[in-house]
Amino acid sequence: MKLGKTIVLITGLIGLSQTAAADPFTEQDIDKSFYPYKDWTPTAEGYTPGDVVDQNNVEQYKAILDEALYKFIKDGWVSIRTAPTTDFPLTPDYVEATRQHAADVTLNPDGTLKNFVAGRAFPQEPSTDDPLAGQKLVWDYQYGFNSGDSETIYPFWWTFRNVKTGKVERQLKFEWHFLNYVHRVTFDPKPAYPENPGEIYRGIYGIVKEPFDLANTQILIHRYQDDTKRDDAWLYVGFQRRVRRLAAGQITDAFLGSDLMIEDFEGYNGRVTDYNWKFGGARNLLLPFYVHDEMDLADEPKNDPDGYHFVDVEGQGNCFPKVTYQLRKTYTLIGTPKDPNHPIGKRVINLDSQTMTMASLVTYDRKGDMWKWFPIGKAHSDNGHLPVNKGKGVALDDFAVVIDIQAGHCTTLQFKSQITDDVNQPNLFTVQNLRKAGR
Prior knowledge:
10% of the residues lie in helices and 33% in strands. The chain is mainly β. The strands form 3 sheets. It has a 16-stranded mixed beta sheet that branches. It has a two-stranded antiparallel sheet with strand order 3-4.
């Protein structure tokens, strides 16, 4: 049954210089996009779930490893355990929003979206023959369900480590909050907050709890519905007790001494229109998707009220998550900054096709040399995680690491994700709240 509305292009009246017409889609497209493992399991020659990939056999698995992970295993930095492919379904609310609204979505000439309400903007299978496939795919990622409508991450530990020695150089303990003002599908109000005079799409707020010298340092980011409008970002400096606006160039600086830039948050935390985007094709890759309580867990945090423990670390410098990897259908999205002075040459984002979340990111410098690796481990929300997340239909952020290959340094990120709107209301994401919380 056709779900997409047939749009007739009359060449003399509607030129390509206006908008790219919406493509019709079918229920089969929906199934393939959101339920790829219902009747199919990805395979690869020489691979069996349960295999351990190490320095001795890595060449056998090269085709199903991202380029950085292949390098690390080949160099003896880590070996990885594998497990069978499992289903990570998103909430039916998000799928239904796609059915209701995707047929009206089009691309404007500047690459922005037109008529987007909620759900997955382009549920059709991307094609390398489509010159706009990369632009469509990045919007599916940008408006994906990575944090649901509202997410709190607390506790959230960032540990700076020397890759060579494993020495812990510093540890920051955060609390983070994420809120979608529009395109909402789960929490009321849906699909948007009625009062949003700033036309904000998303708010991000973080506060440092420890160590003492950085306590109460806070960051606030407003991303706007108009993607051509630059984000606003503010930093409350705890020891100075004042708010300062971040300049545009500071989003590519190291954030609080870590291996992440603000632009790196969640894989890519910037405007779609700041990059040129290309679809690099589909491939089956080993990705860190798992059930949290089935992994080897650390003994931290201690005395958590829910009895929660972080994923543990292993490998060279203790820079790798101690988790299992599973073979999943993945889309390669290649982003190249339009600014010739940008420190990054390109981002290679490996998107999990079912959840449209970033499973790994490999960045290259302007010379074309591999620079950083940034995987995000995903835990199942219904199995082996917190009761508050059950039924939320989100592939939960569960562990991440940024390895700066050139600097020989890494930042591991261990966290407790909660999909809830108990705390996350618009008044939390204001400059006034920065001052209030910093007192």
